[in-house]
Amino acid sequence: MRHARDPHRNLKVALVTGANRGVGLEVCRQLAAAGTRVVLTGRDPVAVNGAAAALRARNLDVSSAVMDVTDQDSIRSCARQVLEQFARVDILVNNAAVLIDEDRKLLALPLAHFRATFEANVFGAIAVAQAFVPAMIERRSGSIVNVSSGAGQLSSMGTYAPAYSISKAALNAFTIQLAAATLGTGVIVNCVDPGWVRTRMGGPNAPASVEEGADTIVWLALRPSAGPTGKFFSHRRVIDW
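Below the sequence we write its predicted structure tokens.
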């Protein structure tokens, strides 16, 4: 198998979902720059391969794999490919997400839009974790970072983007559950509010750059097994749920 002959096989391997652009792409860049082998994933083969190639052109160790987090078969296929190539995943960043009907009010929002949002933002993260975290537990080492949002913060939630905000609150709850399920195994699980970032989702008027948005995600991803778990972070500090 390829990993048995790989001189870099002892480097940590990170897998990032929804990573062909925006914050996810920058997370891949920063992780690779820190000496991590990165698997950049997304559902569009052309976009994923192109993004990975652009990072490799900068002498960064980045591979690509197609994975649609709303498709169980796609997740299983990606897991087989990654484990065959690298034997393990040490870091999992659940970044893939959608923002649907941002400006429509709660009571006017079609139920189908809630379902589509939860499929990507919540069930996708759960399914990907089910595919990769058990092996982390067996190795007694791993870091999972769920990319959440201040919109999902119950302590300050308002009327903004109902489906998205509720889905991110659910992702936070999943983070707490997964952290409890892995407590004492050497696996840490946290979530991050990257802030309002200048991406296709955030728009050109957002105050934070992608570099700033990715910073805390990467910082948490690289924490040792003795690091924090079951917490919600922003700007490298714990925040309220």
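The chain has six helices and eight strands.
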